[in-house]
Amino acid sequence: TVLGIIIGSVWGFFRKLDPLMLEIRNFINNIPSMLVYMLLLFVLDRSFWTLVFVMCLFGWMGLASFIRNQIIIIQNREYNIASNTLGSKPDKMITHNLLPYLTSVIVTVISTAIPAAISSEVGLSYFGLGFSQADTVTLGQVLNNLASSGQWMEKPWVILCPALVIVGMTVAFFTLGLDLADATDPKNHR
Question: What pTM was estimated for this model as a whole?
Answer without folding.
Answer: 0.77
